[in-house]
Amino acid sequence: MIRYFTAGESHGPGLMAVIEGLPANVPVNISRVNHELRRRQQGYGRGRRQQIEKDAVEVISGIRFEKTLGSPVSVLLRNRDWKNWTEIMASGAGVSKKVVSRPRPGHADLSGALKYDFHDMRNVLERSSARETAMRVAVGAFVRELLYLFDIEIHSHVLELGPVKTDRSQLKEALAGDINARADASPVRCLSESSGAEMVAAIDAAKKEGDTLGGVIEVVIRGLPPGLGSYVQWDRKLDAQLAMALMSVQAVKGVEVGMGFETARHPGSRVHDEIHYDKKKGFFHPTNNAGGIEGGMSTGEDIVLHIAKKPIPTLMKPLHSVDIDSKESYKAHVERSDVTAVPAAAVICEAVAAPVIANALMEKFGGDTVKDMQAAREAYLKRLRAF
Fold this sequence. Notes:
This protein is α+β, with helices and mostly antiparallel strands. It has helices at about 30-40, 50, 110-115, 120-130, 135-150, 170-175, 180-185, 195-210, 240-245, 340-365, 370-385, and strands spanning about 5, 15-20, 60, 65, 65-70, 75-80, 155-160, 165, 215-220, 250-255, 275-280, 280-285, 295, 295-300, 305-310, 320, 330. Helix 1 packs across helix 5 (about 135-150). It is globular and about 70 Å long.
């Protein structure tokens, strides 16, 4: 089983991760890992931080001659901006010169200060910051090196950004191809050129007003055989595991599988996917309203997930807040920020889904070595073809 831990603060020396459970002999392309980090830094509406950081990982352990050893993989991602924060973020003796005492509505500031007894909320915002997702993208990139060996792809694109909503029914051709290649070519990762232009305009308008925008992301996972996950216990259900991973991403407030909430608004005859059989294809569903998961298990169709991300809490025209020490009314603290990070969040959602999919794969086919997994998978597929 793959599990990982991250460490580090937004403006500290860097971020770290330990990834445990990757099988032995997975070929690792570090250039491909760093490419995923660059994808996360793209997107219209990002702030100056992305111009400072040029994210690239340093492998500390667990990889030799470009292959995993089966032992924990540890990686480091240095923060270039650290040089500008050495006094403020010092780990030695001293007193903070820039105390943050005005919590931002919508952020972890106040709850974190109350929980951990901090009167300087920089202690909260440094770790709760979305900068941590850079390391989670790196982790996901290492895990995807395993998924590539099984022809499993994870794609994403932006369906909605602020007031602009893309008509998914008009995207059939784009969704049938290389979604990421087309989405990455858009400044907002939108598959519709016209909607993308409207999204850019909405970002410009929000920036002018000192405001921020959220949006809705679609993640599409391809290449899974039926039967990954399980219905026998609540914590083995594939959709539950994916929802937990995606909800852990900063600012995510909702996750849907397939039709999601729309299933509650239609009769069963318009919701459930009929089952057909073909000698060449085997069992299949002509529709995919279930989003590729039924009963906590993959159906063999694409897994389709929708993720709602709220607007960034740091506003250039800050909302009303209260100083936690004086209790006086103030405008909230202003920290350097983006207007929107929805395009980047799409890449992050791909990354956090990867370990969930890899674990489902390893639960079914073992996880010590790549060859054993591939042999077990082929035996399973052979059995399904003869079913």
